Amino acid sequence: MNAPRQDLRTRQTRLQDYQAMLARRLREARNVPAADSYLALQVGQRGWLLPLAQTGEVLDMRQPSRVPLTQPWYAGLVNARGSLLGVVDFGLFCGEGPTPLQPGSKIVVLSRQVERACGILATRVVGLRHAADLRAPAQDAAAAAAWEGRRVDDGDGRAWQVLDVRALLDAPAFLQAGRVAA
Question: pTM of the entire structure?
């Protein structure tokens, strides 16, 4: 009888510790300007940083409904709170192959403007990164596309590519999700 009570107390203590840590991190995040913060995500093997000011919400992974006569990288549509949201396989769009999905994979919504919003498949969401914690890499290669921002390394030496969401959403190749029927 005593062991179940002890297990319950241990779980309650862990939950309280977790809640306190989460509250502390939320307070800290509020003190950092959004312009200096990024959402870090992994698409395949590549790390991307999305400026928080240009990023919408993070949705649980669900299988998009395919749309005929679209580019192979256009994964389809999902219902996000009653609105249809186009979803892009960002790994395929970047020419790196299909985005590997795993338990915990997410759909990350680009843009806070509903009329411009779309989602990209993310293998996993890594968390927040702050500009103060990032530095230019020792060797910086030129960006391959206009929407690829600067490359940076975090304190652990992990390489990240900043995604210029506005430039991506304006890129003609990205806007041309449909393909002509043969």
Answer: 0.75
